[in-house]
Design brief:
Blueprint lengths: L1 H7 L10 H9 L2 H16 L6 H26 L12 H25 L4 H16 L2 H4 L4 H21 L4 H29 L3 H34 L1
Helix pairs in contact: 3-4, 3-8, 3-9, 3-10, 4-5, 4-6, 4-8, 6-8, 8-9, 9-10
Length: 236
C-alpha cells in the first residue's frame, strides 16, 4: 500500500474525480509522455516541408503506444509492487495495452504502406522495446536508463523526421543525441525521486520533483513554441 499511496499523490495526478480516473491519468505519466511526443514533434518540424496530418499522426501514435500501452504494460509487468496498486485488473490493463497498440499500429501501417516505408524499422523496434523494457525480458537487460533514453528519446525524434521525409540526415541524427540526453536526465531524476519518496525524504524529493518539472515542462514548451513558429513561418 505504501507504493500505491506514493503514486496517487504524484504531482502529475489530478486531485479531483473518481479514484480510477485519477489513477488512469496518473498512470499515463503525462509530463514524461509529453516529452516523448515533443521529441517526435521536433523531429517532424526540422523537415524542410511539413505535412500537418503526419504531425497529428505521430502524436497519436506515441500517445497511444507510450501513454497508454507501455504504461499499462509497466503496471502489468512490474516485478515488484504494482506502481498503481490494484485499482485496475490485469484484464483491464491488457485491454488498455492492446487498444493502444491497435490504434498506434493502425495509424502507422497506413503511413508505412502509402507514404513512409522507412518508418517500418522504427515501428518494429519501438514495439520490441515496449515489451522488452516493461516486462524486463532477458533478466532486465533492456530495463535501464540507456535503453529507455534510446527508445523513448532518440527514436521518437527520428520517427518524427522520417514521418515527414521518408529519409534520414545528419540533423535528426545529431538532435536525437540531445533527445537521448534529456530522456536520460529525466529517467535518472525519476528513479532517484521514487527512492527518496519511498524513504520519506521530503527535502530531497522536492528538489528532484522541481528538476523533473523543469526538464519535462521546458521540453514540452519548446516543442509547442517551435510548432507555432513553423506554422507562422509557413503561413507568411
Amino acid at each position: 500500500m505504501k507504493e500505491q499511496v506514493t503514486r496517487i499523490n504524484e504531482w502529475f495526478v489530478p486531485k479531483f474525480g473518481p479514484i480510477k480516473f485519477r489513477i488512469f491519468v496518473g498512470m499515463m505519466f503525462l509530463p514524461y509522455t509529453g516529452m516523448c511526443i515533443s521529441f517526435s514533434i521536433i523531429g517532424s518540424l526540422i523537415s524542410p516541408t511539413i505535412a500537418w496530418d503526419r504531425i497529428v499522426a505521430i502524436i497519436l501514435i506515441y500517445f497511444s503506444a507510450l501513454g497508454i500501452s507501455a504504461h499499462a504494460a509497466d503496471s502489468m509487468g512490474s516485478k515488484k509492487n504494482k506502481p498503481w496498486g490494484d485499482h485496475f485488473s490485469n484484464l483491464e490493463l491488457l485491454i488498455m495495452l492492446v487498444s493502444g497498440l491497435v490504434i498506434a499500429y493502425a495509424i502507422g501501417a497506413y503511413y508505412i504502406v502509402f507514404f513512409v516505408p522507412l518508418l517500418l524499422p522504427i515501428a518494429i523496434l519501438e514495439g520490441f522495446f515496449l515489451f522488452a523494457y516493461n516486462y524486463e525480458i532477458w533478466n532486465g537487460f533492456f530495463h535501464n536508463n540507456v535503453w529507455f533514453s534510446i527508445s523513448w528519446g532518440s527514436m521518437p525524434l527520428l520517427a518524427g523526421y522520417i514521418m515527414q521525409t521518408n529519409s534520414l540526415s545528419y540533423a535528426p541524427l545529431l538532435l536525437s543525441l540531445v533527445a537521448f540526453a534529456l530522456s536520460y536526465l529525466e529517467i535518472n531524476f525519476s528513479r532517484k525521486y521514487k527512492k527518496l519518496k519511498l524513504a520519506n525524504d521530503q527535502c530531497g524529493t522536492k528538489k528532484l520533483e522541481l528538476r523533473l518539472k523543469i526538464t519535462s515542462i521546458s521540453t514540452i514548451l519548446f516543442s509547442i513554441t517551435f510548432l507555432i513558429f513553423r506554422a507562422l513561418q509557413i503561413t507568411f
